[in-house]
Amino acid sequence: MRSGSETSMTYQAPVDDIVFALKTAAGLDDLLQRGLYVGLDADTIGAVIEEAGKFGAEVLAPLNASGDKVGSKFTDSAVTTPPGFRDAYRQFAEGGWSSLPCAETFGGQGLPQIVSAAVGEIWNASNVSFGLCPLLTQGAIHAIEAGSSDAIKAKYLPKMVAGTWTGTMNLTEPHAGSDLGPLSTRAEPQSDGTYRITGTKIFITYGEHDMAENIIHLVLARLPNAPAGTRGISLFLVPKFLVHDDGSLGGRNDVVCAGIEHKLGIMASPTCVMKFGEKGGATGYLIGEENRGLATMFVMMNAARLGVGLQGVGVAERATQQAIAYARERRQGKSFTHNGSGASPIIEHADVRRMLLTMKAMTQAARMICFATARELDIAHLSNVDAERKAALDKAALLTPLAKAFSTDIANEVASLGIQVHGGMGFIEETGAAQYLRDARILPIYEGTNGIQAIDLVTRKLPLQGGAVVASYLAELADVIASVRVSNRPEFGSMAQRLTEALTGLQCATLWMGLNLKSKPEAAHASATPYLRLMSLTAGGTYLAKGALSEDAASPRVAVARFFAENLLTEAAGLAESVQNGADSVLIDAHGALFA
Amino acid sequence: MRSGSETSMTYQAPVDDIVFALKTAAGLDDLLQRGLYVGLDADTIGAVIEEAGKFGAEVLAPLNASGDKVGSKFTDSAVTTPPGFRDAYRQFAEGGWSSLPCAETFGGQGLPQIVSAAVGEIWNASNVSFGLCPLLTQGAIHAIEAGSSDAIKAKYLPKMVAGTWTGTMNLTEPHAGSDLGPLSTRAEPQSDGTYRITGTKIFITYGEHDMAENIIHLVLARLPNAPAGTRGISLFLVPKFLVHDDGSLGGRNDVVCAGIEHKLGIMASPTCVMKFGEKGGATGYLIGEENRGLATMFVMMNAARLGVGLQGVGVAERATQQAIAYARERRQGKSFTHNGSGASPIIEHADVRRMLLTMKAMTQAARMICFATARELDIAHLSNVDAERKAALDKAALLTPLAKAFSTDIANEVASLGIQVHGGMGFIEETGAAQYLRDARILPIYEGTNGIQAIDLVTRKLPLQGGAVVASYLAELADVIASVRVSNRPEFGSMAQRLTEALTGLQCATLWMGLNLKSKPEAAHASATPYLRLMSLTAGGTYLAKGALSEDAASPRVAVARFFAENLLTEAAGLAESVQNGADSVLIDAHGALFA
């Protein structure tokens, strides 16, 4: 056996785990009982996820390895996606998957965020390069919905919702990445109310491709005499092909792809350099108000951040499935529980079990955090109680950096463990395990690096409502942990104790942040990353424990929750220590002598 | 600036850090004072390292990215290494670098292990694909020295020592990897005292290439009627070209390369499938006793394990250097310490500093552990006091799994952080940061996976001398920590407290291992990996602290040691907790229902 067998590379959507996570972390039954999802019930939601699982497994997953091998190709400003992608995208659109979360006004199905999150995991587990295209289109739709005139909405959204056209986000320039302040793409107002856009954008995912009739670019640019920095940035819609008033396609706009990047992973997804206005200026339409483009773009980015978190969950799930399948097949040595002749499947070896359990537990914890975030977005969107909407929006804001950063960090850890489980075969590309790590490696970087997520959490999210948002969330976790403690179930091992310690650490670290944010802001920045990890581990462990409370003693979910508490959550106390006492040593010698 | 600039991809050997680590962790001055290294002094050693640094930076490092891009090519049983490799290898041999650590009897320079370790780091930092060739040749030389007749030594060693011929280790077969018991390559004794070798080996590094006149394969095979399992394995020397008694090359032996692997990394290093005896049997010569081949091979593997650990240190050092250089150049946002207009270099941002410090501190800690291991190998080899030699051999045995596993684990963590520091550019191959991660990913797998290292540490090394070896090592660490505590230096922050907690955790975990190894061996296996990490962090933190004790308050070494204690060693208590209370939850449901 030289390679990952067909079996071990097959993806099967973990529908039961997904539904369980929706019930546990997203409180699905509660949401349904509140009447939040008109016309929907748990069975329908389950059926949608089941269907998505089939589509992902049958149509998208088989293109994952071949898409990686062939990659998208660039010739003369055109991009050719790998064989099968075009047809898969057509089926995706025809199957109604692109319209699933969109507003019914524009032809969408109006399904809630929790369903969108569930199927988003599936698309990305099946094929993260493919999944990026609808993820970005979705983000563009959100931004247009949030900021456009009715005329623009009517002209562009129905085709984008239907998946006939796709969307992109054009933010980054060579000197403007994490900090968009210095971006220099220009927009000149024209007498007809349009703008001429000129500039170069880099790292534009699906900036050019052959899967859709048109591509709708959302572009950050600067008006003449706009204020410097981020307060002088406006957002424009720039279609690849101009669109007539009747919706038919007109001539080619002045925007071209100048090349695609040679990357570590997500090979099938073209990462484009886009040139706007090489022939005088691309025609653009203002979205939202002048100089307020970043606010609208943030609407899009926040949704996309949860989407990227779900990419992490998806890749982690896929890597875990393949590692488990391989560990069942591969035989080496004799385990303690082995009897009979011949070698044991390596899944029986304790150290391999530790790796597989780590993969499984981390993946499930990240999924729970992402779904909990989606729940709040649904309440924020659908509740008819003002205070509920506001509270949910704040809680979603608090959880979004966790969903993005933790899920994508663990995606890398899990994918790396997946390679390790395969031994030497893991390093051979045909096995498929290495691709997950290569694909996962971009996730902590794009849509705001994980360092920026941590700083966002600490500096913008902890202060929400004077700290009441985080306090309320910690109280919610404390309630679950109290239930675990009083349940006193022997099969929980020391779960209650580990959770309590972690929460105590998180409480102290949160207090420390509160005390230092204003007086020692640089120290708060220095401790942001361990703080985010601490909060994520505590939240993830608590969600897993909440799930375990509803299961019987022999349930694998109990075993995973206990493993998480006893082997992964043990990191929490040390993280709390680093947050509170580690910042000074990060900042010593801040002017560079240390790195001389 | 689109790519890692020339500056940021340049490697400069960290000669000062290497010499400092030799003084601190290897106790260089003490070894010199003992008269262990006849004819050597600190200046000479420093000069050798300096020269190696030049050779690495000037000859090997420039081939690292191009070697990755082009890779080794396979055509018709021949392997062509990337442009420049052949010539670089010739210069390497001519410069005397291949003979550096070898016995003078066969033309070597007889330099000690600590020097070999220092230059080994440099070769691998410069070019890990290149570094593998001398690493394996060195291992083959050791095995031949340890097990061969004088005639074989005289015939093969001088050319191998000179670097004219290279060596390989042929262990793995498709069904025999971590467990060599089932290997099925056969060896038939011939009337002339030679053996006919028949079988297929996989994952043979530099099994075929164009850099040397001959390749000396060391091959594990099974004699007819040999006992089953690992007690029936013998070791054979199988040259690519047969060698006449006068040392000149004869005809081609019956061994061919049948292909090379398409891998995630170390692209320039050919990983070969080797076929022995397709035309009736390759001629082989027995090394050591019949059926005792594994014992001799372990001589080779133990040396190679330290060598692989140093590959980890090398890759980590290179990734750290590039990340620091990039973080100095790249400007985004304004740091707290920034004044003036324009953006700050990202090295001023606290979260970037945390990443860079983590990279630097982990790399230095791993280097210290590797050099401490090399020290013991030198005493074991060179002391004229029996008891000293024995004690050093045991201590080297204890430290080798740490040197291998910890250094290679952190190499992956550091390389991944290096990508993160580069942001989006890190994901673009031309930047060079991604290669370090791709190259590093094999290190925790080959020469015994890191899981196997952990089990080796726990099941074979902790019981050495009834536990006295580990007890003595913990006492050695405790002495340093006591000095840190009594020094009471304010610039040490909470270093003493963190070290004391870590050591306490390690002591408890070691006691737990001692109590459980026999009564609950599967639990000991389950906790082996966190135990190895705990011991490595404690050892690494202690060596860094020992170094800090000899430095003044403003020294960057003090800052790094303190950062390590306050931000990385904080993981120790949680690891100790997992070791002692986490094993049960690894083992629950051991028959597979959990992974249904």
Describe, in plain words, how this protein is organized in 3D:
2 copies of one chain form a homodimer. Chain A is 55% helix and 11% strand. With 596 residues, chain A is α+β, with helices and mostly antiparallel strands. Chain A has a domain at 450-585. In chain A, strands 3, 4, 5, 6, 7, 10, 11 and 12 form an 8-stranded mixed sheet that branches. In chain A, helix 14 packs across helix 18 (528-549) and helix 16 packs antiparallel against helix 18. The longest helix of chain A is centred in the middle third of the chain and has 37 residues, at 293-329. The first copy, chain A, starts with 5 loop residues before the first helix and ends in a 9-residue tail after the last helix. Residues 1-5 of chain A have low confidence and may be disordered. The interface between A and B is large, with 104 and 104 residues.
